[in-house]
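Students often ask why we bother encoding 3D structure as a string. The short answer is that it lets us treat folding as translation between two languages. Here is a chain of 479 residues written in the first language.
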Amino acid sequence: MAAKTTPHSYTLEKRAAAQPLYFVKVGTYHYRDNARKEALAADYPLQIIRTRDYYSLVSEPFHEKNGAKVMLQKLRKKYHDAYIITLYRQKSTTKQKRLPRQKSVPQTKRPLSLFSRAIQLYRHNSLEEALVLFDRILIEEPENDYARNYYAKTLMKLGFYDDAEREFQKVHDTALKNESCRYLRQIAIHRSKAPYKSWFAVGLGYDDNINLTTDKNTTQYGPYLLQNDTHKTKSSYATAAFALSHTKKVKDLTLYTTLYSYNELLHSATGNNLNFFDLSTSLIKKYHRFSLVAPVGANIAWLDGKQVSRNIYTAPAILYQASRHLQLKTSLLLNDNHTAFAKNRDYLLIGGGAGIRYKKERWQASADTGIQRYDAKEHIRYDIAKNLFQGRLSAGYNFKKQYRLALVMGYEAHRFTRRDPVMGYKRRDTKSYYALSLTRNINPKKSVTATYRYTDNRSNINTYSYTKNNYTLTYKQHF
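And here it is in the second language, the structure alphabet:
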């Protein structure tokens, strides 16, 4: 198979009225003889194209990008670093009739440098074109650490993790050390990713109000005077939780399936052993900065071995990556509940919400708000039908590499839509809570978390008012 050198008839820059041509590029060589040997050994016809002071191996040109993508899949079986580049035909070099000389018009904009154009392409996610320019810069300026750093980041985004790691290592001992370390850690994390992931957690807890009853010894409920035994609402207990997830990626779609189980056991107060099981599947579709997440799931809860409820739900959401650190979210929630614990407590739930996420280096913060409507399937259930308004703030900080401190604060307003038959008016609850947790990472797969949570529920019907303190200590193991 003869290897030919294509004349220098292509350019990286777009020309007026020029049609783009798509090539699959498989290498860069300082010397033509090296490029020729590789082209002769290839299983597919490759031509040598010269760009300034170096040579590249490229496929035959394609007028449509889909054709180049088919060739890319074939070539990647042997050349793992192959990628698509876009070139344009140069204008004809035939001599034209000389026109009368005109006065020069001062330029309003200076032409972008090669490095600036490469950065611009990188930021607009034109990664293949950016890679060509960074490649070209490094041939001419092999000591340009900033270009090499961007070259490595582009390789990483394209999925060439081995090549990206080698390039990051080259700038590891420069002023870009901190940034290269961060990306090297990301590459290590990516390599540790497997289709299946799981974790197991065990913990101990203490709850001073398991049944969510008033902390007073007696309370008035209409004409009735009720007596409470507050000691029976206090209990220490053990917990066990397990999760198994599977990720399946097909082109630009991701299918994420999770099985989750939570159990409370060994209560010192009898009659409160709880088991919860949830199975959900989420389809994630990305389009530029937007992501569509469409989860569907079902869960079942048991109390003392008896099934108390089951739910079927979906919670579609749209995510928008506003910047590198900021993400916006809007979502809906639909839930069909069946409760076996008490007769006729089934309900339908519909809701929606919005949120914002911020993450930068060691800091993470989020704010969420939402509204939900509960409609009891049995019309006599005055204690089910309600509107719920809620807001939530959270913040976290990682320090000394092994520790994470997190704070969560929330507010809920429960507005029941039907009258309480005993009191003669509608119930209105206002709940506020906060939780403080400290996590110690023993190693990348093991951690211990201590959490304190306080809840204060105030109601216009005194028997529904309560306060609650909960303490937990949890050990978590990832596999």
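Translate back mentally: The CA atoms of residues 6 and 49 lie 5 Å apart. Keep this in mind for the problem set.
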